[in-house]
């Protein structure tokens, strides 16, 4: 007996009609209506933040001539312990944007993955990509939705970078937007920014190293230098690991190539040059 005829409210064998109706360009709204249990939790008991959950640490971003980049160290910590040595904290979210995550690692990774799906879903439903301001506002809404978790000690603090295809000056089309744990959105007009436990030291380094007219290669070197300075003074941030061959994650975004994660070999070469330079300076001071 054929049992595949649509039932009331269904469009096809077992799927609700809503699955075939593009009622909303927001994937999160769709989940909220159809499968709310798949969304990140909205409320948690007080004191949950005292659990030893892993936390991501330092992310930096800076613009360069014709683009923008974002970079992160690889360490995640749980209290005074290293929870992971090779966590990926920087994620490409669409063709011209990327997000770095600091804070509670599990929630942060879940949020950035959902965000990437949100952007892809919007493009499929509407037939166009979100504007850069639309992308940053959507991420702000997702961070704000996590406020209950943040108040329980499980905050997520992203750092957004994107290339604005509508910018009047292509040379300065790279943009950086930071957020607070309550979803506040802040355009970083200085040309560089950082989040996470080591960001104070990283931003101090970038204040001296940043050059808005630098090319991508020089900007990558500055980012890795800043992450090195962060790890030098912040135990929660990881140094380039020369033994295990674990190096920072770097994503560059330009009009020509879009968002591209640099190959491990390229970041390794930059990190090795930074470490060698620091070792040489230390040797000169000691001699």
Word description of this protein:
- α5 (199-209) runs antiparallel to α6 and α6 (216-233) crosses α7 (264-286).
- Helix content is 35%, strand content 23%.
- Residues 1-11 have low confidence and may be disordered.
- The strands form two sheets. Strands 1, 4, 5, 6, 7, 8, 9 and 10 form an eight-stranded antiparallel β-sheet that branches. Strands 11-2-3-12-13 form a five-stranded antiparallel β-sheet, covered by helices on one side.
- It has a single domain (52-286), classed as 4-Layer Sandwich (Glutamine Phosphoribosylpyrophosphate, subunit 1, domain 1).
- The longest helix has 23 residues, at 264-286.
- With 287 residues, it is an alpha+beta fold.
- It has helices at residues 27-34, 105-126, 132-145, 147-151, 199-209, 216-233, 264-286, and strands spanning 55-56, 59-64, 67-72, 76-78, 81-84, 90-94, 97-104, 156-163, 174-179, 185-187, 192-195, 249-254, 258-261.
